[in-house]
Amino acid sequence: MQSDYSFHTTSLTRVAEHHPQAIDFWETARSLGVPAALWRLPNQREKHLIVSFDEVLPRVAADLDELPAGFLISPFDNITDGLSDDEKSAKTLFLRADLQVVFSDNNQIDIKNTAEETAADFWQALMTSARRSSNQAVSASAVTLLSEPDIETNYVRNVAEAVEAMQRGDFRKVVLSRTKHVVFADAPNAVSLFDKLCQTYPTAFVSAVSIPERGQIWISATPERLVSTDANGIFQTAALAGTQSVFNPDGTTKRPAEAMWSQKEIEEQAIVCRYIIECFKKIRLREYIEEGPKSIVAGNLMHLGTRFTVDTQAVRYPQLGTVMLRLLHPTSAVCGTPRDVAFSFIREHETHNRELYSGFLGPVNIDTSEGAATDIFVHIRCMKLEGKLATLYAGAGLTEDSDPEREWQETEMKCQTLLKVILTNE
User: Tens of pLDDT along 273-301?
Assistant: First the structure.
């Protein structure tokens, strides 16, 4: 098959009148029923896309040192303590990077193909998609917020029960989540929503993941890094908790240095920090840099954040990313502490299945100019798309000082992260 592209080279740059865009690769993958992941790292402009030619995604152990280039996405309910190796690998989905594309600011694309024998059908479909989309604009779609009259009452009641349990000393923190549902007049264009999120939230990790076997697309703009290791072996994780609006009552924007935090919010964030430090202690790691807490702006919200950094080469611990990922998830920022007690409370009181919300996701061993890098984030500020129906997820970290009505309002603010983008799509 003749083409202006050659998949027999490791990477290439194509400049042509109608070169494929991210939407073309994305829609081609969907038309062929294969998974795809599209993402943009915080404070960067390049967009990345991978396509896996596995119609059914493998379930893998989250071993960042052994996995090939690809994209991990894991559910919240993925606690591995006390499980066999087979049970541990049953839930984390892995999109192998059979096709990798980088979209640069200057309208150039770099392509790397690692599955040449299976790419021919994809490439032929891609060129058809590119010709079609070059003559079609992405249409907007009206949206309707579904009325759910009992959800606030139930959430406030559950928060009150959690506060009573913490005041009795049953546990110290728990994160309760809820959902909000939106119906589109037409199935929305995920790439269009992704692009809007990239524009609106430049400091977030923005992603869209298509999982055909589940009939789902997950879209998120998360501010919370779980683990990352760059090409130089620098490991990072972060504690992010406590939430307030980035706007003053008069509508002006707050300066992070002037943000006022309540004792409840300070303690909530400190619990997450202590959780990370306890994980370091479990592996006898003492050589880390702790920066914070300080106010972090994440779109329409502000959080308290602390960053932890480790030079894995200096401490001779190249597997630190994998080890910490298994120790940290699910962190007290999305579950609670003690973890097992909080997890049980969540399962007893939340009526929805979190699925991939509050799990983790991100690119693994992706080539950069300096070498392979891994960036895994906590899957929050996200929504699940199933045809015309979107399910948004939001949670609030609760302590014994929590006020149920205020915690409900916090979840409403978090839903606005995605809602403001959705509603401007009309």
Answer: 999 999 999 999 999 999 999 999 988 88
